[in-house]
């Protein structure tokens, strides 16, 4: 049995009743893979590459990952937080160095690392146009790391921008924890959260990662269920 180990932040994590209906991509990804594959989701709210490692979460993966497994590495949102030294990483130095640590852990155990660029935030201007990405430097840095280390990459940021632009401001609200006041009984207060996902969003963006795996072919495509 192949196991996909997922390292990431709140857009990945598995949620419980306390954060319902928030849903992470790793939480639903079993929808897209063969029954013989397994997802072990280590994504955690608020983590960057730095804080994930500082808390020993990469060591935990290192103790469990093995030959033929996969390590999906999806960070960026919290590495950007320059106001928080416990999480911030400079994109073209510390961020890239940290990604290399994740890659090394996978390869030293015979596993297959995959870099996944950060999910785009839902940010539309007053005219309904998607605003420029806040992730640009981190996406570039991750792409550079993928090329330099010869690691496959799935550009979730780019693909998510495409579907956001296609859906538009109103339609895309249902993918995120975005609740105008009184529209959702479990969330009676207004919530304009344009980062964290609901189930519909997790499935939508999970399908993009599945599409990326199919494009990579070989052992990556072999993870996927027939659909």
Structure notes:
The protein is of the alpha/beta class and 227 residues long. It is 38% helix and 15% strand. It has eight helices and seven strands, in the order E-H-E-H-H-E-H-E-H-E-H-E-E-H-H. The chain has helices at residues 25-28, 49-54, 57-62, 91-108, 136-149, 156-172, 199-216, 218-221; strands spanning 3-8, 38-41, 70-74, 112-116, 153-154, 176-179, 191-197. The strands form two sheets. The protein has a five-stranded parallel sheet with strand order 2-1-3-4-5. Strands 6-7 form a two-stranded antiparallel ribbon. Helix 4 (91-108) packs across helix 5 (136-149) and helix 6 runs antiparallel to helix 7. The two termini are 20 Å apart. The model has no long low-confidence stretch (mean pLDDT 95).
Show the helix and strand layout.
Elements (H helix, E strand, L loop, with lengths): L2 E6 L16 H4 L9 E4 L7 H6 L2 H6 L7 E5 L16 H18 L3 E5 L19 H14 L3 E2 L1 H17 L3 E4 L11 E7 L1 H18 L1 H4 L6
Parallel strand pairs: 1-2, 1-3, 3-4, 4-5
Antiparallel strand pairs: 6-7
Helix pairs in contact: 4-5, 6-7
């Amino acid at each position: 049995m192949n196991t996909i180990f997922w390292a990431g932040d709140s857009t990945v994590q598995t949620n419980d009743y306390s954060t319902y209906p928030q849903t992470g991509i790793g939480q639903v990804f079993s929808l897209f893979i063969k029954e013989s594959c397994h997802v072990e989701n280590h994504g955690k709210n608020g983590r960057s590459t730095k804080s994930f490692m500082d808390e020993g979460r990469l060591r935990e993966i290192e103790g469990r990952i093995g030959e033929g497994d996969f390590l999906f590495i999806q960070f960026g949102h919290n590495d950007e937080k320059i106001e928080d030294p416990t999480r911030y990483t400079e994109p073209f130095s510390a961020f890239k160095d940290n990604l290399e640590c994740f890659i090394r852990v996978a390869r030293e155990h015979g596993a297959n690392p995959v870099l996944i660029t950060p999910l785009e935030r839902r940010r539309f201007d007053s005219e309904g146009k998607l605003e420029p990405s806040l992730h640009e430097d981190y996406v570039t840095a991750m792409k550079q790391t993928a090329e330099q280390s010869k690691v496959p990459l799935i550009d979730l940021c780019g693909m998510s921008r495409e579907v956001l632009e296609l859906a538009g401001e109103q339609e895309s609200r249902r993918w995120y924890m975005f609740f105008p006041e009184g529209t959702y009984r479990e969330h009676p207060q207004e919530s304009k959260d344009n980062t964290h996902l609901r189930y519909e969003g997790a499935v939508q963006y999970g399908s993009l990662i599945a599409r990326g795996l199919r494009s990579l072919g070989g052992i990556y495509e072999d993870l996927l269920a027939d659909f």
